């Protein structure tokens, strides 16, 4: 495994919006100018890569596969912690063809020493990677979204694979079809989240674990800007162009916001976080053992 902050991207060579499996996806808008959209997507990708470099990441860019446009969202491909990657199982047939090329990508990362092991989930449940299973470094556990995409049982499977606590949160709307659309833990212990996305039980769970002073409530406008779908490292937050509300809120808490125009990807229901996958996350127990 690697101890440098390392983040995976997948090049948008084969990216497009040609089907619709979430309410944000707009194949019609893409089809009006596919070449122009693709050009814009390439430029947005380069801007994201640069912002992640500025945030201090070593960026690994892998190639996607023809006919699998959503591979550009590697957050959905696996959950990674302590050098171990657990590969995703996609709910929709449109994305299942990503499983084999992603398995090859993770095997390659293992061969290059960026991961120690690559594991698969038991049959019979869906799990869409770090998009639905987010490591909270301040609290030392995963938060797992379930409902629209990942299954409830996947949260328990993840707890077994990683030997870590997993707090399952039911997602109540198709608009927030992955947890990362509506929930983002920050390095200072704050959690940026959109309350209407969650079931009452999930909201109680969040509010029991995150004190009021650390809860940042996103507005519907923030959600529409895909601002909750952010990549955070230390005091830097990388996100697609945001709202005055969040710019002020994060700024007053000492965060520096790097904004990138990711509109070609928002047309597929994605923002900065889901276009990435952290490869270097380490749990508290492993960190302690390494220090001992
Ligand atoms: N079009 C993709 C899908 O519907 C977008 C995935 C965005 N990923 C995320 N983690 N939010 O699956």
From TrEMBL:
Recorded catalytic activity of this chain's protein: L-arginine + H2O = L-citrulline + NH4(+)
Pathway linked to the protein: Amino-acid degradation; L-arginine degradation via ADI pathway; carbamoyl phosphate from L-arginine: step 1/2
Any GO BP annotation: L-arginine deiminase pathway
The protein's enzyme class: hydrolase
Pfam families noted in UniProt: DDAH_eukar
Enzyme nomenclature, EC number: 3.5.3.6
MF-aspect GO terms: arginine deiminase activity
Protein name: arginine deiminase
Species per Swiss-Prot/TrEMBL record: Cupriavidus metallidurans (strain ATCC 43123 / DSM 2839 / NBRC 102507 / CH34)
Organism placement in taxonomy: Bacteria, Pseudomonadati, Pseudomonadota, Betaproteobacteria, Burkholderiales
């Amino acid at each position: 495994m690697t101890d440098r902050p390392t983040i995976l991207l997948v090049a948008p060579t084969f990216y497009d919006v040609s089907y619709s499996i979430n309410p944000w996806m707009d194949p019609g808008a893409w089809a009006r100018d596919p070449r122009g959209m693709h050009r814009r997507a390439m430029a947005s990708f380069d801007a994201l890569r640069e912002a992640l470099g500025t945030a201090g990441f070593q960026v690994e860019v892998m190639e996607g596969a023809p006919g699998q446009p959503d591979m550009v969202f590697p957050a959905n491909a696996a959950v990674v912690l302590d050098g171990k990657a657990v590969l995703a199982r996609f709910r929709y047939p449109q994305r299942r063809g990503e499983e084999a090329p992603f398995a090859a990508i993770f095997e390659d990362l293992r061969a290059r020493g960026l991961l120690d092991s690559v594991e698969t989930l038991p049959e019979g449940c869906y799990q869409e990677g770090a998009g639905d299973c987010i490591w909270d470094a301040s609290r030392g556990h995963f938060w797992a979204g379930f409902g629209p995409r990942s299954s409830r049982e996947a949260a328990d499977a993840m707890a077994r694979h990683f030997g870590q606590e997993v707090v399952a949160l039911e997602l109540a709307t198709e608009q927030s079809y992955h947890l990362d659309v509506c929930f983002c833990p920050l390095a200072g212990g704050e959690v940026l989240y959109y309350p209407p996305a969650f079931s009452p039980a999930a909201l109680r769970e969040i509010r029991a674990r995150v004190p009021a002073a650390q809860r940042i409530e996103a507005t519907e406008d923030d959600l529409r800007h895909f601002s909750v779908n952010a990549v955070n490292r230390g005091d830097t937050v990388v996100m697609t162009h945001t709202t005055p509300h969040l710019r002020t809120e994060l700024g007053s808490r000492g965060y520096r916001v790097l904004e990138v125009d990711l509109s070609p990807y928002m047309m597929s229901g994605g923002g900065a976080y889901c276009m990435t996958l952290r490869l270097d996350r380490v749990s508290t127990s492993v960190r302690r053992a390494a220090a001992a």
